[in-house]
Amino acid sequence: MCWGQGVFDCRNKMITVSGIPAFSWAFAAASECSLMMFNTSTFSGSATGKRYDIVTNAVIQTAGAGVNLFPGNSAGTTATGGQYA
Questions:
Q1: Are 78 and 50 in contact (CB under 8 A)?
Q2: DSSP string for the chain
Q3: pLDDT by residue (tens digit) across 3-17?
Q4: Could you give the CA distance from residue 53 to residue 59 in angstroms, rounded to a whole number?
């Protein structure tokens, strides 16, 4: 999670998800003008729950990786100016 104009930089990483975690909120969550960067990152493993949740003008940047980049079994959401790019 990234809040309050924070920056989470996870570019160019291979991220392994162990077990099958169940996310009650979302795998990636950004709010309040924060920025999460996952450009050219990859994920292995699986999870259940929402892939991402972006609100109040926050951005998750994936460099066009597509809406299924993050582990999860339900679609991500954006609201109140949140952007998935």
A1: no
A2: -B-TT-EEE-TT-EEE--S--B-SS-SEEE-TT-EEE-TT-EEES--BSBSEEE-TT-EEE-SS--TT-S--SB--EE-TT-EE-
A3: 888 999 999 999 999
A4: 10
Tokens of 63: 């460099």
Residue 61 tokens, joined: 């940047």
Say which residue the tokens 């790019």 belong to. Answer: 85
Q: Which of 39, 76, 22, 32 is nearest to 57 (CA)?
A: 32
Residues 6+ positions from 5 with CB-CB distance below 8 Å: 32, 33, 34
One-letter amino acid identity for 8?
F
pTM tops 0.85:
yes
